[in-house]
Amino acid sequence: MKCNIGKYIEESGFKRSFIANKLGITGRHLVKYINGESYPPVPKLFLLAKLLNTKVDDLYEYEEEIN
């Protein structure tokens, strides 16, 4: 999965601390979402999409592994 959360946060003009506060998480937790170290629960994913004025399915892209 390719994470696009960081890209959409940059485009939004919001500070990461603002986004983290709105989601009720720490800044470190948001960084983990951005880096793909963890994934937001579905309710937070929908709130994040609303804050960033995008669709939930824009926040992640599925990348097929080629073997």
Describe the structure.
With 67 residues, this protein is mainly α. Helices cover 52% and strands 6% of the residues. The protein contains four helices and two strands. The chain has helices spanning 5-12, 16-23, 27-35, 42-51; strands at residues 2-3, 60-61. The longest helix has 10 residues, at 42-51. The mean pLDDT is 95.
CATH architecture identity: Orthogonal Bundle
Count of discrete alpha- or pi-helical segments spanning 4 or more residues: 4
Largest sheet: 2 strands, antiparallel
Structural class: mainly alpha
Which strand order spans the largest sheet, edge to edge or round the barrel? 1-2
Silhouette = globular
Supply the CATH class: Mainly Alpha
List the secondary-structure elements in sequence, H or E.
Answer: EHHHHE
CATH superfamily: lambda repressor-like DNA-binding domains
The total beta strand count reads 2
Question: Into which percentage range does the β-strand content fall?
Answer: 5-15%
Share in helix = 40-55%
Number of domains: 1
Rg, rounded, reads 12 Å
Span between termini: 16 Å
Average pLDDT for all residues: 95
Low-confidence spans: pLDDT under 50, at least 5 residues? none
